[in-house]
Amino acid sequence: MNKYDVAIIGGGPGGYVAAIRASQHGLKTVLVEKDQIGGTCLNIGCIPTKALVKNAELLHEIKNAKNRGIICDAPKVDMKAVLAMKNNVVKQLTGGVGALLKANGVTVFQGEANVISEHELTVQDHVITFENLIIATGSSNNIPPIPGLDMAGILTSTELLEMEAVPESLVIIGGGVIGCEFATVFSQFGSKVTVVEMQDALIPNMDLELSKGLKRSLTAAGVSVLTGCSVTKVEKNDDDYQVTIRGDKDTTISAACVMVSVGRKSNLAGLSKLPLTLERNYIQVDDEMATNLEHVYAIGDVTGKIQLAHVASAQGLVAADCIAGKKRKMSYEIVPSCIYTLPEIGSVGLSEQQARAAYDAITVGVFPMAACGKAVAMGQTTGFTKLIADEKSGKIIGCHIFGPNATEIISEAAAVMKAGGTLVDIAETIHAHPTINESMHEAAHVALKEPIHMM
Ligand SMILES: NC(=O)c1ccc[n+]([C@@H]2O[C@H](COP(=O)([O-])OP(=O)(O)OC[C@H]3O[C@@H](n4cnc5c(N)ncnc54)[C@H](O)[C@@H]3O)[C@@H](O)[C@H]2O)c1
């Protein structure tokens, strides 16, 4: 009998995590996924991108190996083998998630869900009846209405992850997270990359020092970064695209490929029978992830909150717990976000600009990677760790790291912030030596005006 306590549409990091938790609560749970389990994150987002970023890192290390006394031949990229490696990584992880769902007793239907009433959906020839519904349908690439972007051959990150050859040149429209990660990968792979960003800074919503540092490092890697510029049209001439750019002065750039990464839009197909409250086409939810319909919840990118896999998973756990009667609320105050560039970025809490606007007085401590022993030993001295605290209480309200292992060590700051910790808490915690983590320890000492390894 296809009658379930909870039906979940979408098997990404929001949906599959919610399904496992719902089932663990003893709820009869079904998950419907139209493509592959794992969603954007595992199949065409976070995971495959990180597989390529690792290759970019390797190439960068090999190219610089002679500075460390290692002589290597000039590296070459075999894109077909790179794709095989990337596909293997994806297969391993999606297979793992499939096994977890099975082990937790979640029923999985492959196919497109179509909600036909407030308590029923169809998938292929089946009718599924549900007491509660969790919508976890995610988002897809948004293509802005710029003349020429509807042309065949214009790429998004999805197609760029399937390239069988390294493009000679690549224009990336949008200098946000996707744009900067793909610029990192393809510039190291050998493409001549141009990034066109409409705002005055790359990754414009993050701490300005991160944006400036990233622009410097991408430029040093040979990427042409055009900020404060917009693309007005794209045309095709023989084999190349002509990209017309409006900035301080108008220019036209010729490129073999054009990728668009200007944000994403919600996936709402199959949901029109539900009278959901939407805003800018995103499903509106409260802190328990409930929509305006009592038994319908929504999680992940489709809610238009913070579009990150780990936020979707956290929302999925909240939704499943609330359905099971273990009511709790989602909080967005402490959400680490990471960008996989060279070097990496890890960020949590308020940017310095936001902190100055929100607090009467703040204390900022910045420690350069060039003064961190482990970073020097690794030959990766670009970047810094910045801690921001409320001057009155000393409580940490933001941390921004640009440097090696930034995406890993940012969780220390997140954990301290979650516990309401202060600069003194970090300064008085013994940090192992030599580690990049010491830069956080040192940044706390700098903020407290008692630096040890800095003049
Ligand atoms: N490492 C990660 O966590 C990771 C990786 C990839 C994607 N994501 C998430 O996926 C989502 C989508 O990423 P994204 O990079 O597409 O979006 P984004 O919002 O990060 O960046 C889009 C950028 O495009 C710019 N832009 C908008 N219109 C433009 C135009 N016409 N011309 C030039 N620039 C324009 C914006 O100013 C912005 O800087 C984001 O929410 C992101 O956080 C996260």
UniProtKB/TrEMBL annotation:
Class of enzymatic activity (EC top level): oxidoreductase
PROSITE patterns cross-referenced by the UniProt entry: PYRIDINE_REDOX_1
Residue ranges of domain Pyridine nucleotide-disulphide oxidoreductase dimerisation in the record: 335-444
GO molecular function terms noted in the UniProt entry: dihydrolipoyl dehydrogenase (NADH) activity
Domain of life where this protein originates: Bacteria
Residues annotated as domain FAD/NAD(P)-binding: 4-316
Transmembrane segments: none
Cofactor stoichiometry and binding remark: Binds 1 FAD per subunit.
Cofactor(s) essential for the protein: FAD
Catalytic reaction annotation: N(6)-[(R)-dihydrolipoyl]-L-lysyl-[protein] + NAD(+) = N(6)-[(R)-lipoyl]-L-lysyl-[protein] + NADH + H(+)
InterPro entries: Class-I_Pyr_Nuc-Dis_Oxidored (IPR050151), FAD/NAD-bd_sf (IPR036188), FAD/NAD-binding_dom (IPR023753), FAD/NAD-linked_Rdtase_dimer_sf (IPR016156), Lipoamide_DH (IPR006258), Pyr_nuc-diS_OxRdtase (IPR001100), Pyr_nucl-diS_OxRdtase_dimer (IPR004099), Pyr_OxRdtase_I_AS (IPR012999)
EC identifiers of the protein: 1.8.1.4
Keyword check for Cytoplasm: yes
UniProt keyword terms in alphabetical order: Cytoplasm, Disulfide bond, FAD, Flavoprotein, NAD, Oxidoreductase, Redox-active center
UniProt-annotated location(s): Cytoplasm
Other comments on record: The active site is a redox-active disulfide bond.
Similarity comment: family membership: Belongs to the class-I pyridine nucleotide-disulfide oxidoreductase family.
Name recorded for this polypeptide: Dihydrolipoyl dehydrogenase
